Each structure stands twice: as C-alpha cells, then as structure tokens.
C-alpha cells in the first residue's frame, strides 16, 4: 500500500550524518511537514536545522539508552513515520577465532538490533494513536546473505530483517506499515573501507523515499542491492555460494 510523505511528521535516528542526514533532506523534499532529527550529539545536527529551519527539530537520542528513548517518545508524540537508521559496524576481516568478533558483535547487536526493537516498541503506541503510520528499518544486503568479512555485522542486520517481518505482522492490526530497506555500499563513513563502487547517500535516500511512497515492503535503493535482491529472490543458496567466495 502506498504511503505518501506529504504532510507527515517523521523521526529519523542517526540523522546527523550519512544516510540518515540524507533521508531527512529527502523527506523534507517530499513534503514532510516536520522531521525530528535524532542524534547522540545534537550539535552535529546544526547543518540540517540551518538548511530546513523549523521543519527539522533536533532531538537527543542514543538508541541504546532506555531513558533517552522514553524521553524521545514523550517529546515527539505526533510521529507518524519512524525511520530506524542509526547503525554501527565494528570489527571486520581477520581470523574466525579473533576475539573482537564477539566484543564488537555485541555492540552491533545493541545498536542495530536491540536499538531498532526498543525504538519500535516505544513508538508503536504513538503510531497507532496517530492513525497507524509506518516504520522503516534500514537493514542491509548483509541481512539477506552473510558477508563473511563482516560476519558479526551481517548477523545483526539479519536480526533486523527478522524483526522487520515480525513487526509487520504484529502491528498490522493497528494499521502500521513496515518497510525493510536493504542497501548495498553507500558512500558514508561506515563504508569508507568497503572496496566496491558506492552510491551517494542522497541518491539512496531518494530511492528509499520513493520506495516508501510506492508501498514497497522491501526497498533496494542502489544498483548493487537491486541485483542482490533479485538474486536472493531467485535462489538464496546460489547467492550464498557467490558471496562466500569474497571471504577468501
Ligand atoms: N553505508 C553503507 O554502505 C550501508 C549499507 C547498508 C546499510 N547501511 C546502514 O545504513 C544506516 C546508516 O549508516 P551510514 O552508512 O549512514 O553510516 P554512518 O555515516 O557511519 O552513520 C551512522 C549513524 O548512526 C549513528 N549511531 C551509531 N550508534 C548510535 C547510537 N548508539 N545511537 C544513536 N545513533 C547512533 C551515528 O551517530 P554518531 O555520529 O553519533 O556516531 C551516525 O549518525 C546504518 O544502519 C547502516 O548499518 C549502510
């Protein structure tokens, strides 16, 4: 079902840079009346508030801090569209037995999975009260197939994919639409060392907003993700074979 952005009030986590900042720009361009831009450090939001004036409201939010999540829900009772964008990528590469996989993997789960779960729980009643609304989870192509070089990050993003499906089923009754976004490499700080061709955050954000408006439950916002999404639908085992060769 299509979800028009015009006139809506949104909240975007991790809005101070990268894909999150670009999503705020794209939502405003699509006619959102207000966007709460949430970040750990609200000073980092100055460029967004300078660009968009009072249509962007800065909000302090670390998605791993329950008290800050509760305060955000209190401060933003008019939210109709929640974009769970904040994300963390820790250790990559090295040996399978490297201890950092576990230490960094726990942090990745905290932000990428439990953060999304906690935000969705806190805002589900608000979305329900405001007519149903929508939740958009920024997952990854690594949600659909593991990139072994990013083993623990991939697992956290697979967890987000599973949670996206559960949220869709559990909130259907209150009319909340749930979108999963599965980007490939996007040119942000997180992907600085990723050795693939990258899509700009602005282009990815525009495709994400277009996907929401078109009502696509799975959104593939860049050329690599379009190809991998098609390969995943055609045969997940063959996709695993292809991607696993990258680990060597
Ligand atoms: N770039 C890619 O190739 C790519 C591909 C697929 C999916 N993604 C996903 O897209 C999303 C955005 O990533 P990006 O590429 O824009 O990366 P980025 O530039 O590194 O931005 C990450 C954002 O998440 C925020 N963040 C991290 N931990 C947080 C926490 N505990 N609470 C609140 N905010 C937190 C960061 O805030 P600080 O500035 O305070 O650290 C920053 O705003 C992530 O979910 C990522 O996994 C990215």
Domain count: the total is 1
- Quick one: how many beta strands? 7
* Structural Rg: 17 Å
Name of the CATH homologous superfamily: NAD(P)-binding Rossmann-like Domain
Widest sheet: strand order? Answer: 3-2-1-4-5-6-7
Q: Figure out the total of helices.
A: 8
Give the strand content: 5-15%
What would your notes on this structure say?
Helices cover 46% and strands 12% of the residues. It starts with 8 loop residues before the first strand and ends with a helix. It has helices spanning 18-29, 46-52, 66-75, 100-129, 151-170, 201-214, 223-234, 236-244; strands at residues 9-12, 34-39, 56-60, 81-84, 134-138, 177-181, 218-219. With 248 residues, the protein is an alpha/beta fold. It has a 7-stranded parallel beta sheet with strand order 3-2-1-4-5-6-7, sandwiched between helices. The radius of gyration is 17 Å and the shape is globular. It has a single domain (9-247), classed as Rossmann fold. It contains 8 helices and 7 strands. Bound molecules: NADP nicotinamide-adenine-dinucleotide phosphate (NAP).
Which descriptors would you attach to this protein?
248 residues, alpha/beta, Rossmann fold, 7-stranded parallel sheet, binds NADP nicotinamide-adenine-dinucleotide phosphate
Task: Describe, in short, the structure shown.
With 248 residues, the chain is of the alpha/beta class. It is 46% helix and 12% strand. It has a seven-stranded parallel sheet, sandwiched between helices.
Summarize the helices and strands and which ones pair or pack.
Elements: E1 9-12, H1 18-29, E2 34-39, H2 46-52, E3 56-60, H3 66-75, E4 81-84, H4 100-129, E5 134-138, H5 151-170, E6 177-181, H6 201-214, E7 218-219, H7 223-234, H8 236-244
Parallel strand pairs: 1-2, 1-4, 2-3, 4-5, 5-6, 6-7
The structure holds NADP nicotinamide-adenine-dinucleotide phosphate.
NADP nicotinamide-adenine-dinucleotide phosphate binds next to α1.
């Amino acid at each position: 079902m299509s979800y028009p952005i015009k006139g809506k009030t949104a909240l975007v986590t991790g809005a101070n840079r990268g894909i999150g900042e670009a999503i705020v720009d794209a939502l405003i361009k699509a006619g959102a009346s207000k966007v709460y831009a949430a970040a750990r450090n609200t000073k980092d939001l100055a460029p967004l508030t300078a660009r968009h004036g009072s249509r962007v409201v800065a909000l302090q939010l670390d998605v791993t801090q329950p008290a800050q999540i509760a305060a955000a829900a209190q401060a933003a009772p008019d939210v109709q569209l929640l974009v769970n964008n904040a994300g963390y990528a820790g250790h990559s590469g090295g040996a399978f037995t490297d201890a950092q996989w576990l230490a960094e993997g726990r942090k990745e789960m905290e932000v990428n999975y439990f953060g999304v779960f906690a935000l969705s729980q806190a805002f589900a009643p608000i979305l329900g009260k405001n007519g149903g609304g929508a939740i958009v989870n920024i997952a990854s192509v690594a949600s659909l197939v593991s990139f072994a070089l990013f083993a623990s990050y991939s697992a956290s993003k697979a967890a987000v994919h599973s949670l996206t499906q559960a949220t869709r089923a559990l909130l259907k009754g209150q009319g909340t639409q749930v979108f999963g976004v599965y980007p490939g490499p996007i040119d942000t700080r997180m992907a600085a060392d990723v050795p693939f061709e990258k899509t700009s955050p602005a282009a990815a954000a525009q495709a994400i907003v277009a996907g929401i408006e078109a009502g696509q439950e799975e959104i593939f916002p860049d050329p690599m993700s379009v190809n991998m999404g098609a390969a995943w639908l055609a045969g997940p085992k063959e996709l695993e074979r292809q991607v696993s060769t990258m680990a060597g």
